[in-house]
Each structure stands twice: as structure tokens, then as C-alpha cells.
Amino acid sequence: MKLDSDIEKIFETINNMNGKSSDIVTRIIEKNNNRIGYIFLESVSSDDKISDFLNKAIINIDKKKFFDSFYNLVKNSIFSSNMKFCSTYDDMFFYLASGFTVIVVDNSTKAIVIETKASLDRGVSESTSETIIRGPKDSFTENHNINLGLIRKRIKDSNLWFEDTTVGIRTKTKVTVAYIKDIVPKKKVQRILDDLKKIDIDGILDSGYIRELIEKKQKSIFPKLISTERPDLTCSSLLNGKIVILVENTPFVLILPATLSDFFQSAEDNYQKSFNASFNRILRVICFFISLLTPALYIALMTYNHEILPDQLLISLAVQRDGVPFPTAIEVLLFVLTFEVLREADVHVPSFSGGAMSIVGALILGDAAVAAGIVSPIVIIVVAATSISELVFYDVDIIDAIREWRILFIISASFLGIIGFMVAFIIFIAKLASLECLGTPYLTPFSPLNIKGIKDSIIRVSRKNMKYRPSYLTDNIKRMGDMNEESNN
Asked: Which of 92, 102, 272, 412 could be a cystine partner for 424, CB 3.0 to 4.6 Å?
């Protein structure tokens, strides 16, 4: 609906649209035999900016200046680095809710919009979800412009492009797609923008909404996007040829496409020697399989396939299970679920009582269960090793995926032993091999095999030998020149 030309009518309409909310502030000023009105929401606007800047600018309008209309006189007398214009009530309320002040003039159907946002965001601080040992200590915040700035200050290239769109019928959340133009194929960016524009939902409150809504095809427990708070990891991904999605009002950005090997890497690896980074990545791969397979393998060996174990080890395990009233599968499932409950409780309890909760759950409860004969000591060891191994991963989505597939492996081994274990493993590999994101296979660079891509996957070669970007991400693969040739020249 278009704006009226009468100030009182405009104010009345806006108040009625918002149910005459208490945070709507309006004022009318007479100047040069004309009336100027402004309206803002005090909950999201800065009263100091309005009083110190806007009021003074309106009062100091010089009537001697000649303009064809009083509207143009007002427009050219107010100096602001962020001035916009609107002509409909829907646009006006969008700007009001975004922290702008709207200036209206009698007999004009266009409004002037000036940015007077209040500071409602926390400052840049260290990441809380990803521990930082070495590297930059800053992290993204809920302020969208700050997040863009944290990327800009690291990549000072004109080819770094930000494309905005709005998602959410009611929230009208700004979503920005960031990429380096001469590295990322345009068709991938356009595909993401098209997917975002097709989203039809009331509101977007976090990047997790976007992640779920754009993963429409090939739904999988394993994440196909990386969620991170770290600007350094985000910029490293951009330079490699990946695309980043930033969502207003959330500190978590999305990086895509993601492959399985990406979750064995850490931003810390970029600041360590290549040998140490490679060792840590191999350790994460080992922990991945320990956490995923160990409980199911224990059930298979103890329930169906005793012949695989050495006799002395089998006798030792049988002695430990003496007096336990439950079958091995029930025993393992019982304690796996107990540890998952403890993990969930540790996430949600206040930090000051989290340590006590862990001690009570892990030590006292485990020791009491063994003493009471409910579970055997070896099950405590198996489940503890499983739970500790998954702690090497920081991404919550990959931890959840491991947990859910672990249960499937346990169920398969409980019914068919090693045969069920192997069938579940084959299905697991086949499922991972079938996944893709933006045309990139999930098991890349190992399936299909990409020799150059392996240099920065599970193994990280020295920085001077990583001259090329992964070819499965971009056609512009040259990352650096030959330093030896340059020095000779």
C-alpha cells in the first residue's frame, strides 16, 4: 500500500499496522510554514543519534536555499552516509524494524529513511564452540555488517563478492552469499541463490534453518555443509573455491560444499607444521572409526564370533561378564544410552555445575554399576573409549551423525554378528559414496580419486607444495606461482 500525503494519516496507519505498540515514537516539527514528521521504534533505534543529529539537521534547514519542493529541500539538508527512500507502508515498517528513522513531509508520498540503529549486538569475541589454541582469536557475531567486515579485512580483493537476498515472509532476514568471483563457477552461486529464493517460510532465525531447507535432495544424517564461527576458516574456504552463506542475527556461517574429509580437518592445522597437522588428522580418522565401530564390533565378537578372539582373551572377558544379568547387546546399549544422557545433560546444565555432573556420572555411576554387577568393566572401557574418541570433533552435526550410525551398527551386530556388522559397513560406505553437494562427491578426493586434492585432505603437505586449489571445487586451480622459478628470474 502506497504512502499517504498527510503526516497524521501516515502515523495513524503505521500505529494501526503494529497494534499501537508502545515503542513507536512520532513527532511533528513545523519549519518554514511546512510540517516535517519523523517516526522511529525506540526499541531498535538510538535516541542519542536522533536527538543529536536528526533534530539539529531539521532545525537548521535554511529556508533561503531554493529547491523545487520542500521535500527536496529536506532531502538535501540532511546529511547521512546511509540514506534511503521508500514509498509504501510495508517498506517503511521494514526500515523501522531495522533501526531506521523515517522522515515524512506534508504533500509528499515519498519518505526519507535515515539509519539510526542502536547497538544491540555483542562485540567481537573469541569463539565459544571452537577452541582456539593458535590463530586469530576473533569470531563472528550476530551483527551482519561486522561479519562481512571480518571477511573483508582478511581478503582485500575486488573479486570477493557479496550477493544479498531476503528470506522469511515475516522476519525478512538478510542472507548473503559470499564467494570469490574468479575462483567459484557462477553456476554454483546461481544454484544457491535460486534455492534461497525458493524458500517459503514465515521466518529464519538462525543459519540452521537455511542448512535444513537447502538440503532438500539426498537427505543424510551426515552434514554436507560446514557450520563455523571462525572467520579464518571461512576465508581459507573462500580462497579454496568454496561458497559461504551468512545469515543475519546469527554468528554461525555455512560453508559449502563440504566433504567427509573436511570434518577431519581443523583451522588449527593451518598454523602448525605439516607433519604435526597430518598426524592430528590421521588421529581424527582413527577416532572416527573407534567411535563408530567399537561397540558393534565388541557385541559381534562376544555374542556370535568367539573363534576370532584368542582363547586367553576370551576367558578373561568371560570372567569379567560372570554374574551380569543382561545379554551383551543390552548391556552395551544400556550404557551407550546412559553416556548419551550424560553428554546431553552436560551441554545444558549451567557451567558452574557441569564439572560436578561429569564426575558423578562418569566415575561414581560407572563404578557403582560395575560393583552392582549390572555391567562388566570391559563395557565401561569400550563405551568410555567410544565417547572420548568423538570428542576430537568440534562440529555438532558430525558428532550426531556418528552417534546415530553407531546405534545402527550395534543393532546390526546384535542380530547377525560379524556378518551384520559387515553388511552395515557396506551400506554405510555406499550411502556416503552416493552423497554429493553442488556436484562434489562426498568422499572426494578419495572417491573418485583426485591426487592433487589429497595433498590437503587427510595428509597436509608443506605450504610451498600446495600450489593448486582442489580441482573438484574450481577450474581456477593455481594458488601460487613456482617460488623457485621466481627467485631464479
From this structure: 412
